[in-house]
Amino acid sequence: MSPRRYAEDTSVPVSRSRGQIDDLLRQWGVDAIQWSEDYQDDRVTLRFVWQHRELRYSTRLSVQLPKRAELAKEAIDGRTGQPSERKLRVLLEARGRQEHRLLLLWLKAALNAVDAGIVSAEALFLPFLEGKDGRTFAEVASEHLPDLLCGSAEKLLPKGRT
Predict the structure, then answer these.
(1) Chain centroid to CA 70: how far?
(2) 78: pLDDT confidence band, cut at 50, 70 and 90?
(3) Reported pTM
(4) pLDDT in tens, 27-44
(5) Are 88 and 136 members of one domain?
């Protein structure tokens, strides 16, 4: 038996979780918040902008939702072997609830760690910082992981900036 996953049976609506995330980020002092939904890739994206010293940081967190095809398999009626429209509708309505609760939990813990001085906001959000080209640091760095793991992080810097 696998352990119960956090918020797997939550009935908290996505809108309430998003509102709580928005409130949390506003209290932390962000300048802007944006939510977007990619229906084709079953992904939700949260972007927020915050300022530290003289720099404005744009942060992007993407959450993969269960794919509709996966939910359709889960909705198969044991008696008929066909997807149950009612079961599928219930699963689709619940989709995103757990993921948004997890995002809220992670952000609360992360921001508390920043406030407690355990980690800087820049270090914590580094993988999620978005450049002007729309790519996050993690997306750029992951292409260079073999080099990073075999040497120095300076290899990631443009020539002449070390």
Answers:
(1) 20
(2) confident
(3) 0.84
(4) 999 999 999 999 999 999
(5) no
Number of domains comprising the chain: 2
* Alpha-carbon gap, residue 127 to 50, rounded angstroms: 15
Q: What's the CA angle centered on 82, arms 77 and 85, to 5 degrees?
A: 75
pLDDT at 161: 52
- Strands 32-38 vs 55-64: parallel, antiparallel or unpaired: unpaired
Is 43 a domain residue? Answer: yes
**111: Cβ contacts below 8 Å, ≥ 6 apart:** 24, 28
Range of the domain at 112: 14-121
SS3 string of the chain?
CCCCCCCCCCCCCHHHHHHHHHHHHHHHCCCEEEEEEECCCCEEEEEEEEEECCEEEEEEEEEECCCHHHHHHHCECCCCCCECHHHHHHHHHHCCHHHHHHHHHHHHHHHHHHHCCCCCHHHHHHHHEECCCCCEHHHHHHCCHHHHHCCCHHHHCCCCCC
User: Over 90: is that where the pLDDT of 97 sits?
Assistant: yes
Total residue length of the chain? 162
**Among 119, 97, 76, 69, residue whose Cα is nearest residue 10:** 97
